[in-house]
UniProtKB/TrEMBL annotation:
Superkingdom, taxonomy of origin: Eukaryota
Record-linked InterPro entries: Coronin, DUF1899, WD40/YVTN_repeat-like_dom_sf, WD40_repeat_dom_sf
Domain DUF1899: 4-68
Taxonomic lineage: Eukaryota, Metazoa, Chordata, Craniata, Vertebrata
UniProt keyword annotations, A-Z: Repeat, WD repeat
Name of the protein in its database record: Coronin-1C-A
UniProt KW Repeat keyword: yes
Amino acid sequence: MSRKVVRASKFRHVFGQAVKADQCYDDIRISTMTWDSNFCSVNPKFVSMIVDASGGGAFMVLPLNKTGRIDMSYPTVCGHTGPVLDIEFCPHNDNIIASGSEDCSVMVGL
């Protein structure tokens, strides 16, 4: 006689709920040039995303309380001549961010 075995899972009865549109970010041109890294970085104050930009790499830094549709003219952080490959916030200061690019340069900004 065979017995049916049900695997125990602690996530069996967990259900999620979709976030409302006013709590999401819309109309951001996320870059497709990122290699083996993240497209974004976040800390307790800001979220940063690598975006498509003409003439080199750029990324966008948004305060966490600014959600909804992001205007196409929202300022981006530019300065690299190649695509930005990775961005990361400083673990000790929430206002400092570093970016690394395909042009072999690293930039640190406030």
